[in-house]
Amino acid sequence: MRLLPGRNRDWPASPAGQIPAGRVELRPLGTEDEHRYMALRVLNSAWLQPWDATTPENPDPRDSSASFRQMARSLGRSARSGIHLPWLIWFTAQGGTPQMVGQLTVGPIIGGSARSTSLGYWLDEGHAGRGITPFAAALAVDHLFFERGLHRVEVAVRPENVASLRVVEKLGFREEGVRLRFLHIHGAWRDHRCFALTREEIGEGLVARCRGSQSGIG
């Protein structure tokens, strides 16, 4: 398993699994996803704006085809080098057709003695509350620990983001404290509550934990 920059032979990878509401799949993000992605972002612009990453130089970024293509190309190169794993979240309801419903990105992946990374995610407002995000995160974490040999995964959440806090709590992430002015979000430097898991803490994995708990995928 490759943990340092170099050709990533484990990519693309598409972890998937079933929850009561339907099938959840992580598919690698690509330039061919532009139109679906842009439509989903426009539909969810107000829902996502308070949590969107920004920079001091660009405190109010706008989604555009050019910005998507730049992101897709950059993350694609980074994925092939083993530094990021950029996934789109797809969901298929019982008897339905697959729909793109969000995004989950892992990175940067640090090898060597750290063997750690972080993950971030967002979901379509219309699909919130069905257990999709916790299960998507569980798929990603299990892939990182069992397939890529990482030892630690972190998630940073704004204290005001109640929905995202529910995700890490359901999955059993351990809170480690508050990082002041940690990331530039929605036009300003924002504090974040930080959560983590190590390989020793997850037993048979987070997917198994979700399926073994009635509240784990709600």
TrEMBL record:
Establish whether keyword Acyltransferase is in the entry.
yes
GO terms for cellular component? cytoplasm
Organism from which the protein derives? Nesterenkonia aurantiaca
The record, for InterPro entries, names: Acyl_CoA_acyltransferase, GNAT_dom, N-acetyltransferase
Family that this chain belongs to: Belongs to the acetyltransferase family. RimJ subfamily.
Which intervals hold domain N-acetyltransferase?
A: 24-200
For this UniProt record, the keywords arranged alphabetically read as follows:
Acyltransferase, Transferase
Q: Name one Pfam family in it.
A: Acetyltransf_3
Xref: PROSITE patterns: GNAT (PS51186)
Q: What is this protein called?
A: Ribosomal-protein-alanine N-acetyltransferase
List the Gene Ontology MF annotations in alphabetical order. Answer: protein-N-terminal-alanine acetyltransferase activity
Keyword Acyltransferase in the entry? The reply is yes
